[in-house]
Amino acid sequence: MKNNRRKREAKIRKLEKLKPIYPCVAGVDVGATELYVCVPEDRDVKPVRVFQTFTGELHRIAAWLKQCGVTSVAMESTGIYWIPLYEVLEEAGFEVRLVNAREAKNLPGRKSDVLDCQWIQQLHSYGLLGASFRPSKEIVALRSLVRHRDRLIEGRAAHIQHMQKGAASHERAIGQWNSRHYRCDRIAYRAGDRRRADRSGDSGGVS
What we know:
This protein is of the alpha/beta class. The chain folds into two domains: 18-134, Ribonuclease H-like superfamily/Ribonuclease H (Nucleotidyltransferase, domain 5), CATH 3.30.420.10; 135-200. Helix content is 57%, strand content 13%. It has a five-stranded mixed sheet with strand order 3-2-1-4-5. Strand 4, helix 3 (82-91) and strand 5 (95-99) form a beta-alpha-beta unit. Helix 2 crosses helix 3.
């Protein structure tokens, strides 16, 4: 019995602390006007930087991440603001992981003084963030065309009404112009008749 207990005790090992699985990852907090980007602390003197949402700034982010040796980037799917940065990073060769914002924020253990981008980067390095589905470029382009076609079909009735309204107003304007022109012609014709009558009366008196 004692030997069996010793064997069982010998098999039990202490759990090691959780170590990063992906050391070369970055986290991005996407906003409407600013982008907060975080890389591992040993990759740059300033591991957290703030960028604007202009196209040139997006390419600066990609260049800085390459300089820091980052291979994978995680970001929250905030509205539509993530799409330009996602496309720029994907074209630059990064593995971009689109994360559900609710999933990232509901995980316990976050400190109050940690930025969102730092928290996303830390969770991504531990492999705790699942990627949302993102179709291929061809499917995305086709889907945008189909949606644009649907919007055109849905709005064609309104466009037809606008055309009919414009045509009706144009016809009214032409009718008003014609009526005014006709009245002017009638007035001029009557004035001419009066002048001719006056001339004929004057000539009869002379004879």
